[in-house]
């Protein structure tokens, strides 16, 4: 842990966008209004699989609506997700399809002067379909003779034939697996499953597009990456990037749902270009639910261990339901291998993953990108092993976790680096005391209708996707920092903030380096025309990667202002220091031990008047590491053995995030992660009617139930703490938090349920119906 004392980093400060959001003044995509703007609507398929025979738009056009169909849009085949390098990117979609492959997929679109007229025009469109067989189970889709969703797709620039609906596969092996299992005194194997969770972000996907007179476009989208959106739109519509400008607009939550260029964006661009007018297109909640979900997975997990609890070999096989489009399942499988390998040491291992096409909503990244699914299985099996060995589950984890000085895979086998900060043991030991681990009791000793149990789960997420050698995933950020003539500063970056305080942290980093209060650091409005490339706010990379670029830019600006001050004070710039004035927060440049001093503002203003230039810095930077943000959850549940309901009653959540930028926001991240992780374990899923291919819960939030603050433990029963660590490669010692916060939760809940009633449920969500069924099968007697 660094002994450095910070004046900006680590303090609770008001969010820069807090007032605007609290008062409703913040502008989201759906708030953008342009002169002469039309409103777009998309006609969506009622069928899970069908060929579009004809589309009659005459009725809509008679009302004055602008219409686009498959025949009128570019036929460029693309993947919405642009984070991976091209040769690892599978491409299977166009702006509009000639074959629909899931209920809710867009068939055509209209634009009209009012939303009401757009709806009426949509109702006047007539579509003739040729129905095709639907597939809703990934194992059925794999069988010989199953209907084919795609004959071929693109992989990079190559045509790739598709067989048995396999979207992609990945097999990774290291060490001698047979020898590893032969050395084991105990071999344990179990199967696990997780559901198709809907992201449930507050803002549905939306976009406004304005066609420009020079043939270009300006776009205000819901997205996690303005530059990737720009590049993909330029390729699809053959527009030079200099004529494509994508604005960063505040996003109302994402959870990974906008890591890709969302489907409505390209449709809206096509509408606007045909209409010659700006067009706004915003999805309803029901439409949004048919647009994206978490990757559901079926996992077979196997470990070999010695009598004293050392793992000798591990094997994980997973079947992932990709849905109707492959939104980069290949890197997902690589990540799942990385999550598996980097939780616990294995001298020998094998990972085998298969992604399968089905006629369901396409799955995409969501809070952990396969990590919660893998960690749910691994943490559950660790407790099963501990029970079979007669060992404390915490002791077993202590013996085997991947920690300080060891190699971990980060986001797959091509992203390997050394762990240089680790708070795993601190979190396990302190959390054990806080939850009262030693008093949790055995399930066979518990009686009565309501039974309580305590479980533990640990995990991690990477801080970005960097590594000493570039891998399959693009990862770098660009930032500009300039010092203003009054001593304040501006930072410009294309980095997105999802609401958790990423841009506030960037301001703290810049203020810390420049020696000024964070209140004096402005975060500039950004678009792709005025910022350098930032890959995407994903992979818990915002502070660690985006912050590193901002720090380097600030360091250059700091050096420049010190050189200016050195001229004015007649001293060596390397001898000067900067610190904020305690009262005003303005930076004071001084030579220690003397009366030579000048404010940052005075130096900047003098440089302007003398024509010396602006103190400014620009940096485009890729981190060469992606340090794990470790998490540990201790959760107490209460199981009602009459109804099967599971209620969380207490929780301890700990994180190793290195230097914590804003303690209250970090605590909020942990609490939010707990909430979503408990929901994965107990509640959320999207079921499909096997006859119609429709979701059984598509009444929006009326039917789709989410875990809320009401179901969470009371304030006094929810504790969080931060491990005392410092990441040497991070800006001021910081790592990420975001996705890590929910990765370990589902496993901790499953372990707590087992401790409460002596029954293990490996199929999430663990609904009351499943609990009652398992109790009945076990001959449970109250």
UniProtKB/TrEMBL annotation:
Q: Which residues form the Aldehyde oxidase/xanthine dehydrogenase a/b hammerhead domain?
A: 23-133
The record's annotation in Gene3D superfamilies points to: Aldehyde oxidase/xanthine dehydrogenase, a/b hammerhead, Aldehyde oxidase/xanthine dehydrogenase, molybdopterin binding domain
SUPFAM superfamilies in alphabetical order:
CO dehydrogenase molybdoprotein N-domain-like (SSF54665), Molybdenum cofactor-binding domain (SSF56003)
Give the transmembrane ranges: none
Name of the protein: Xanthine dehydrogenase molybdenum-binding subunit
Q: Which residues form the signal peptide?
A: none
| InterPro entries in UniProt | Ald_Oxase/Xan_DH_a/b (IPR000674), Ald_Oxase/Xan_DH_a/b_sf (IPR036856), Ald_Oxase/xanthine_DH-like (IPR016208), AldOxase/xan_DH_MoCoBD1 (IPR008274), AldOxase/xan_DH_MoCoBD2 (IPR046867), AldOxase/xan_DH_Mopterin-bd_sf (IPR037165)
What's the source species for this entry?
A: Desulforhopalus singaporensis
The protein's GO terms of the molecular function aspect are: iron ion binding; oxidoreductase activity
Check the record and name the Pfam families matching this protein. Ald_Xan_dh_C (PF01315), MoCoBD_1 (PF02738), MoCoBD_2 (PF20256)
């Amino acid at each position: 842990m660094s002994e450095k004392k910070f004046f900006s980093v680590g303090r609770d400060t008001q969010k820069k966008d807090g007032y605007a959001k609290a008062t409703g003044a913040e502008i989201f995509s759906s708030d953008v209004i342009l002169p002469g703007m039309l409103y777009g609507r998309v006609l969506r398929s009622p069928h899970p699989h069908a060929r579009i025979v004809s589309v009659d738009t005459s009725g809509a056009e008679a009302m004055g609506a602008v219409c686009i169909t498959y025949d009128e849009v570019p036929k460029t085949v693309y993947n919405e997700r642009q984070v991976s390098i091209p040769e690892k990117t599978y491409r299977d979609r166009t702006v509009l399809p000639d074959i629909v492959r899931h209920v809710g997929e867009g068939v055509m679109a209209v634009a009209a002067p009012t939303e009401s007229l757009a709806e009426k025009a949509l109702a006047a469109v007539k579509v003739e379909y040729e129905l095709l067989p639907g597939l809703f189970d990934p194992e059925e889709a794999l069988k010989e003779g199953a209907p084919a969703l795609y004959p071929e797709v693109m992989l990079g620039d190559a045509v790739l034939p598709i067989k048995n609906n396999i979207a992609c596969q990945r097999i990774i092996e290291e060490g001698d697996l047979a020898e590893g299992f032969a050395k084991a005194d105990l071999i344990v194997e179990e199967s696990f499953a997780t559901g198709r969770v809907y992201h449930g972000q507050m803002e549905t996907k939306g976009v406004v597009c304005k066609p420009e007179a020079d043939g270009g476009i300006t776009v205000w989208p819901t997205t996690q990456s303005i530059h990737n959106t720009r590049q993909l739109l330029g390729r699809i519509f053959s527009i030079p990037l200099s004529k494509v400008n994508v604005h960063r607009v505040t996003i109302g939550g994402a959870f990974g749902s906008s890591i890709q260029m969302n489907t409505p964006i390209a449709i809206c661009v096509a509408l606007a270009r045909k209409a010659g007018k700006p067009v706004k297109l915003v999805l309803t909640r029901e439409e949004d639910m048919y647009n994206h979900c978490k990757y559901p997975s079926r996992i077979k997990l196997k470990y070999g261990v010695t009598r004293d609890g050392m793992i000798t070999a591990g094997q994980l096989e997973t079947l992932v339901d990709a849905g109707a489009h492959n939104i980069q399942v290949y890197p997902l499988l690589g990540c799942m291998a990385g999550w598996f390998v980097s939780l616990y040491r294995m001298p020998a291992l094998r990972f085998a993953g298969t992604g399968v096409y089905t006629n369901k909503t396409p799955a995409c990244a969501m809070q952990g990108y396969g990590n919660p699914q893998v960690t749910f299985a691994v943490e559950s099996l660790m407790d099963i092993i501990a029970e079979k060995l007669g060992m404390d589950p915490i002791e077993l984890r202590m013996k085997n976790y991947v920690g300080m000085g060891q190699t971990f895979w980060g986001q797959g086998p091509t992203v390997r680096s050394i762990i240089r900060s680790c708070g795993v043991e601190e979190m396990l030991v302190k959390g054990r005391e806080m939850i009262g681990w030693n008093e949790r009791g055995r399930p066979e000793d518990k009686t009565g209708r309501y039974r309580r149990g305590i479980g533990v789960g640990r995990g991690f997420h990477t801080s970005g996707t960097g590594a000493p050698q570039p891998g399959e995933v693009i990862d770098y950020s660009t930032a500009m920092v300039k010092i203003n003539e009054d001593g304040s500063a501006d930072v410009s970056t294309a980095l997105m903030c999802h609401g958790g305080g990423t841009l506030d942290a960037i301001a703290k980093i810049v203020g810390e380096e420049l020696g000024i209060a964070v209140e004096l650091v402005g975060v500039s409005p950004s678009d792709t025309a005025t910022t350098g490339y930032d890959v995407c706010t994903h992979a818990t990379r915002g502070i660690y990667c985006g912050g590193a670029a901002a720090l380097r830019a600030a360091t250059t600006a700091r050096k420049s202002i010190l050189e200016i001050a050195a001229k004015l004070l007649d001293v060596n710039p390397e001898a000067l220091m900067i610190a904020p004035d305690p009262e005003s927060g303005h930076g004071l440049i001084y030579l220690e031990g003397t009366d030579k001093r000048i404010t940052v503002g005075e130096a900047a203003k003098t440089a302007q008047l003398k024509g010396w230039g602006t103190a400014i810095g620009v940096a485009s930077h890729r981190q060469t590491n992606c340090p794990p943000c470790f998490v540990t959850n201790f959760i107490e549940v209460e199981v009602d053995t009459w109804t099967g309901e599971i209620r969380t009653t207490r929780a301890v959540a700990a994180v190793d995030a290195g230097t914590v930028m804003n303690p209250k926001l970090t605590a909020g991240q942990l609490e939010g992660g707990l909430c979503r992780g408990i929901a994965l374990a107990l509640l959320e899923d999207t079921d499909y009617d096997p006859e119609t291919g429709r979701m059984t819960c598509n009444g929006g939030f009326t039917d789709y139930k989410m875990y809320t603050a009401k179901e969470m433990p009371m304030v006094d029963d929810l504790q969080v703490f931060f491990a005392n660590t410092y990441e040497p490669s991070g800006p001021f010692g910081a790592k990420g938090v975001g996705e890590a916060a929910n990765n370990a939760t589902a496993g901790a809940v499953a372990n707590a349920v087992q401790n409460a009633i002596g029954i293990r449920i490996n199929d999430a969500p663990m609904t009351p119906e499943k609990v009652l069924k398992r109790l009945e099968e076990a001959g449970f007697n109250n």
